[in-house]
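Trying the structure run again after the queue cleared.
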Amino acid sequence: MRTVNIHEAKTHLSRLIEQALQGEPFIIAKAGKPVVKVTAIDAPAETAVHRTGFLTGQISVPDDFDQIASDEIAQLFDGAQ
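Done. Tokens:
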């Protein structure tokens, strides 16, 4: 396994990460002493599940939804009593 110093790791980080992704992990050393092992992780591919319409028929929104309690809300913002 390859060992690189911190300066080299900072300078060539993109290349080193690509190599780690290809199955070549590496160690970063500070003052000649190994401190970090960098290796690719086996993360599952993110699959976004869009469940549009999953509550269809289970809830209802009144036609005047945007007007409910509008007078009270206006009073709260205006400070009128």
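Strands lie at 2-5, 26-30, 33-38. Worth checking whether this holds up in the mutant runs.
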